[in-house]
Amino acid sequence: MSKRSWPFLLGGLLVALLLAGVVSNYASSHPDGLDSSLLKGCTVNADDEITGGSCPAQQAKDHELADSPLADYGVRGIGNDFLSTGLSGVLGVLLTFALGGGLFWLARRRGPAATGSAAAGPATGGPAAGGPAAAGPAGDDSGTTAQPSGTR
Question: How much is the pTM?
Answer without folding.
Answer: 0.57
